[in-house]
Design goal:
The protein is mainly beta. The protein is about 10% helix and about 40% strand. Strand 6 and strand 7 form a beta hairpin. Bound molecules: zinc ion. Zinc ion binds next to loops.
Length: about 160
């Protein structure tokens, strides 16, 4: 069976940035199972896997526009420190959920002064070109329940 809309695809993968540093990998965690065509993974990687089958190995370089988007500098914001009153030790790199007009956004602390905390609402991988090495382990039909939920159940997927 080939990778197509509504297929469950099980992959091993390693993700590197352009300097060769490993950003993410299934190694040690176990293979990832995703439902093709449901936005479970970035669309650039779905496109690269379309039509492939179990045993295939692919390498794909994916531009930010097909991954986590370009960085937007206007998503940085200075916030008075007292708004973090409930947090004891704010450190650079910490992530918080922030309520915005467009719903909750994950922001990352990028700088701290005595009175202000600078947060960045960009995804940590925004603006980063992604280099994937992927091996397809399995391609199978999704169950009706998986299609209804929009994700894979069992190993490498959701447990609930
Ligand atoms: Zn489910």
């Amino acid at each position: 069976m080939k990778v197509a809309e509504n297929a469950v695809v099980v992959i091993d993968y390693t993700l590197k940035d352009n300097s060769g540093e490993v950003i993410d990998s299934s190694e040690g965690v176990g293979p990832l199972a995703y439902l093709h065509g449901f936005g479970n993974i970035i669309n650039g990687l779905e496109d690269a896997l379309l039509g492939k089958e179990a045993g295939d190995q692919i390498q794909a370089t994916i531009a930010p526009e097909h991954a986590y988007g370009e960085r937007q500098e206007d998503m940085q914001q200075d916030v008075p420190k007292e708004l973090f009153g409930g947090v004891d030790n704010i450190e650079v790199g910490m992530q918080f959920q922030s309520e915005t007009d467009e719903g909750p956004v994950m922001v990352t602390v990028i700088a701290i002064t005595d009175e202000m905390v600078t947060v960045d609402g960009n995804h940590p991988l925004a603006g980063v070109e992604l280099n994937f090495d992927v091996t397809i382990r399995e391609v199978r039909e999704a169950s009706d329940e998986e299609l209804e939920h929009g994700h894979v159940h069992g190993a490498g997927g959701h447990h609930h």
